């Protein structure tokens, strides 16, 4: 028994509980104290609208899960939600283009009319505000090049070939307990971001599953599609922010003008907000289908067990690693060695508590992802044989060494964020 292990009687069912004093004491028999309100749940109670949305969200997630278990993920490109989202996003982009053309035409056709100049400049200015935003690679973000990480890039190329995806152009390594794939810029640069803390808590084959899942987004066209539709949503948010309510003050005439302007901008905000909700709703279903599709590819490449293992870590060890890094950053010392020791001593009882809590509270990465425990169930349902990519211990150690080159910088960034948070 470890020094931190304690035994007590459950106050609800009188069963004997063996636990770790560093973590939540709970009863596996009756699930007493399964959830800690101060740690596992938000401090504010959601309103009626949020509760309704949560219920609808849970029903939708369950229905979609039954669908993919029964008939698979299908062909994402033929999903009606994708077609409708593309159509609405195209309308937003065309509207911005029409404002640009109209503004330029007014300036040229009515010059030197003050009326034409005012409305022409306004049209061009609005077109600039509503321009498509395809993202860009932060020039200050340190990236691993092929020369610096040849073994990692070779592994990524193998995964890309198996997934039917284009090769990764840029690999970023950061301190998030996460990973992501995205396409940025007009040239469509494929960027893979690996969160070093998440990578460290995964087993070797689970790391292959993580890479295969992210590469699956490139092969499905999800990253490219979300860049197009997402830029339309970003444009709408820019317009919504620009149409902010004006402060009513000054002379009577100024107040009257401000009231009229607020009424007009209020109508614009309402219209734009409605379009945002429609676009996000249309992409909601497809985004979750895309996650299942990427999980399916990862299960074929790395094995269903490995994918389910990643999901289990996202439920159990990932939140714990996030909390540990946040607190450890204030204490100093070797951040990564401390995290490895903390994860090595992470008790099974706490892992099981978090698994049960995830099933009860539909834990997910974010709203674009299905609940993580449902994704794990989907992964293990895939009837795939042996993994198509298996790496040797030596190869994975060399990949780890290449990623560890960024470990010191990332540890300093985590510590800097933790110190900055003290002054917010």
TrEMBL record:
<feature type="transmembrane region" description="Helical">
    <location>
        <begin position="114"/>
        <end position="130"/>
    </location>
</feature>
<keyword id="KW-0862">Zinc</keyword>
<comment type="similarity">
    <text>Belongs to the peptidase M48 family.</text>
</comment>
<keyword id="KW-1003">Cell membrane</keyword>
<dbReference type="InterPro" id="IPR050083">
    <property type="entry name" value="HtpX_protease"/>
</dbReference>
<dbReference type="Pfam" id="PF01435">
    <property type="entry name" value="Peptidase_M48"/>
</dbReference>
<protein>
    <submittedName>
        <fullName>M48 family metallopeptidase</fullName>
    </submittedName>
</protein>
<keyword id="KW-1133">Transmembrane helix</keyword>
<keyword id="KW-0479">Metal-binding</keyword>
<keyword id="KW-0645">Protease</keyword>
<keyword id="KW-0482">Metalloprotease</keyword>
<dbReference type="InterPro" id="IPR001915">
    <property type="entry name" value="Peptidase_M48"/>
</dbReference>
<feature type="domain" description="Peptidase M48">
    <location>
        <begin position="150"/>
        <end position="379"/>
    </location>
</feature>
<feature type="transmembrane region" description="Helical">
    <location>
        <begin position="254"/>
        <end position="279"/>
    </location>
</feature>
<keyword id="KW-0378">Hydrolase</keyword>
<keyword id="KW-0472">Membrane</keyword>
<keyword id="KW-0812">Transmembrane</keyword>
<feature type="transmembrane region" description="Helical">
    <location>
        <begin position="83"/>
        <end position="108"/>
    </location>
</feature>
């Amino acid at each position: 028994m470890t020094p931190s292990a304690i035994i007590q009687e459950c106050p609800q069912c009188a069963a004997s509980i063996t636990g770790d004093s560093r973590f939540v004491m709970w009863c596996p028999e009756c699930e007493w104290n399964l959830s800690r309100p101060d740690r596992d749940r938000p401090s504010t109670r959601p309103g009626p609208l949020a509760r309704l949305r949560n219920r609808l969200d849970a029903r939708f997630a369950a229905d979609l899960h039954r669908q993919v278990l029964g008939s698979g993920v299908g062909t994402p490109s033929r999903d009606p939600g994708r077609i409708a989202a593309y159509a609405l996003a195209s309308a937003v982009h065309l509207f911005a283009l029409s404002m640009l053309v109209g503004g330029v035409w007014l300036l040229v056709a009515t010059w030197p009319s003050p009326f034409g100049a005012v409305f022409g400049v306004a049209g061009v200015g609005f077109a600039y505000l509503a321009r498509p935003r395809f993202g860009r690679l932060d020039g200050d973000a340190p990236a691993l090049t092929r020369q610096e990480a040849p073994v990692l890039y070779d592994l990524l190329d193998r995964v890309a070939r198996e997934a039917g995806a284009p090769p990764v152009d840029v690999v970023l390594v950061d301190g998030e307990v996460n990973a992501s794939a995205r396409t940025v810029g007009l040239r469509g640069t494929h960027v893979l971001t690996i969160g070093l803390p998440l990578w460290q808590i995964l087993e070797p084959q689970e790391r292959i599953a993580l890479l295969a899942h992210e590469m699956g987004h490139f092969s499905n066209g999800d990253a490219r599609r979300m860049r197009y539709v997402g830029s339309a949503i970003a444009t709408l948010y820019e317009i919504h922010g620009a149409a902010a309510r004006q402060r009513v003050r000054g002379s009577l005439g100024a107040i009257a003008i401000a009231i009229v302007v607020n009424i007009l901008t209020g109508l614009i905000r309402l219209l734009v907000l409605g379009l945002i909700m429609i676009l996000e709703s249309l992409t909601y279903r497809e985004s979750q289908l895309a996650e299942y599709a990427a999980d399916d590819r990862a299960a074929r490449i790395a094995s269903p067990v490995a994918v389910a293992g990643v999901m289990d870590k996202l439920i159990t060890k990932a939140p714990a690693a996030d909390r540990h890094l946040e607190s450890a950053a204030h204490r100093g010392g070797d951040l990564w060695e401390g995290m490895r020791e903390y994860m090595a001593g992470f008790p099974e009882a706490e892992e099981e508590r978090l698994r049960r809590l995830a099933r009860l509270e539909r834990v997910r990465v974010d709203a674009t992802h299905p609940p993580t425990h449902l994704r794990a169930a989907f992964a293990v349902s895939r009837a795939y044989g042996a993994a198509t990519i298996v790496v040797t211990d030596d190869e994975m150690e060399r990949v780890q060494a290449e990623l560890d080159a960024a470990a010191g910088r990332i540890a300093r960034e985590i510590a800097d964020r933790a110190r900055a948070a003290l002054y917010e």
